[in-house]
Amino acid sequence: CVCVCVRVYTHYLCQPPTIVKQSVKDYIVDPRDNIIIECEAKGNPVPTFSWRRNGKFFNIGKDPRVTMRKRSGTLEIGFRSGGRPEDYEGEYQCFATNDLGVALSNKILLRVSKAPLWPKEVLEPVVVTEGTPLVLACNPPPGLPPPFTFWMNSAMTPIPQDKRVSMGLNGDLYFSNVLIKDAHTDYCCNARFLFTHTIQQKNPFTLKVLTKEPYNDTSYNATDPYGGRKVAESTPTFLSPSGTESSKMVLRDEQLLLECIAAGLPTPTIKWFKKGGDLPGRKVKFDNYNKTLKIINVSEEDAGEYVCMANNHLGSIRHSIFVQVKAAPYWLDKPSNLVLAPEENGRLVCRANGNPKPIIEWLINGQPIESTPHSPSRQVLGDTILFRSVQMGSSAVYQCNASNQHGYLLANAFVSVLDMLPRMLGPKNQLIKVIVNNRTFLDCPFFGSPLPDLRW
Hints:
Blueprint: E1 2-4, E2 11-13, E3 15-22, E4 26-29, E5 35-37, E6 39-44, E7 48-53, E8 56-57, E9 66-68, E10 75-77, E11 90-98, E12 101-104, E13 108-112, E14 126-129, E15 134-136, E16 148-152, E17 165-167, E18 173-175, E19 188-193, E20 198-201, E21 207-210, E22 234-240, E23 245-251, E24 256-259, E25 261-265, E26 269-274, E27 284-287, E28 292-295, E29 304-312, E30 315-333, E31 338-340, E32 346-349, E33 351-355, E34 359-364, E35 367-368, E36 378-381, E37 384-387, E38 396-404, E39 407-417, E40 420-424, E41 446-449
Parallel strand pairs: 4-13, 14-21, 23-30, 31-39
Antiparallel strand pairs: 1-2, 3-6, 5-10, 7-8, 7-11, 9-10, 11-12, 11-13, 15-18, 16-19, 17-18, 19-20, 22-25, 24-28, 26-29, 27-28, 29-30, 30-33, 32-37, 34-35, 34-38, 36-37, 38-39, 40-41
GO biological process, one term: brain development
Keywords: Cell membrane, Disulfide bond, Glycoprotein, Immunoglobulin domain, Membrane, Repeat
Organism: Cyclopterus lumpus (Lumpsucker)
């Protein structure tokens, strides 16, 4: 079909539906707002829209809280008349349809942000001996997304952190060795929740520090924090992680965080190495007084054995972390639209890589290709579909889904079978004015099927 637009001299072919805007795959919403799930598509004729929720047809007309925007597939779910946002959690997928086929959005996993209360608990005073290590556990409530944690006292003053005292990646507060000055009644772990902009505070820890000799406030100084008292020194041991080795899995293009926190007196120094190679200098960063190693945009060559070493003048200790780099699917050759003339041959290619290697699945107009009528002109060979001697009437929108346990990719590609004489798509008798000795560009948009040869 040829769709003639209002603009003079310009003709457009009917266009299959194409998704141009959609919500993110992992979509977390604020429970205080209306829920908006985006799906916009273009096409000629203008597409109509439908949704599936958790794999089943979502009947929008039967739910008074759900409306769909005009000439759009975007859903808006309101709660002025009551209802719980949690009732609408689930997996949504948008279908945009016109005469030429069906295009699909990604599967949108909708979840409602949660800021649960800290469980009530009575914290007994923590009693430790001067010079020994200590861990104060935070254990924040499992919010969605996870909260940002930090330590303060009851006056909302941050707990000073340094080489000796610092917060780990899990939110716990680690003391490589405890000093008398650490004795306080209000070590409070706080959890800040992103969506609700609220801060929740855990009941405070009271820390009591025992000494073997009397303590004199006037004797404290930075170079001799023990005031002349004899405190037993100790060789380094690891507070986190435990044991001599551990493993870590990270996804390609994400951020790798490795952590080693050591106990000992004097406070140990942390150093990092990579066995069999150098640390990737341009991508590596050390945080938390060298206790955390951070690598941005991880790639496959960042896999391997990382070693952290803690040492003081009494000795040293090592811990090996074996890093595996896996990968959600990523495109090598994304399928693109294909225009064929009757009796022509062609191919659709959908190549993706990942670790593990992705599984490739093909759909036609949103239906698994295995469940559609057999076509003698079509042959599926894994990541490729071959078309031979295609016929009019076999146009459709094909979907390629590449998935592994870490994620998926979805692409729409339109296969159009057309028999059209060559035509110019630009305006007729166009006058182009140029400046002498300057370059110019002459455009000649055209279309035809089979694809015409162009001559000037």
